[in-house]
Amino acid sequence: MATQESNVTVSVSTMKDMLIEVLKEARKAPELTEAELAELESAQSMRKERAELELARMETRRQEQEYCTHMRQGIYAGTTSAVYVENGNYMICQQCQKIVRPDQEPALFRRLQGASGTSNF
Ligand SMILES: [Zn+2]
Fold it and tell me: What is the value of pTM for the model shown?
């Protein structure tokens, strides 16, 4: 029984591309100088610091929103500091910036809208 060798035909330009790819792969990453390494490290720690600050900021806001009654004080007591945003169909508190959507927090949404004095519902 004759065994047939399977031959693959590759064009010269494809062969060239393949060789270039192989050479690219084989090339080692250049050694970083000490200054470059230090720069890289400081950039990384700066990114980390920024991310931590952002997290802390988000946590503070979350707490503000949790404790905010979204109601006004003083002579406006009994009315909400939330306003209705028609094109987005939500209420936003002007004190804590919390966004209340009717499909996510229907009870709170109705309460705020009722207290806003602008209810059309
Ligand atoms: Zn609020």
Answer: 0.56
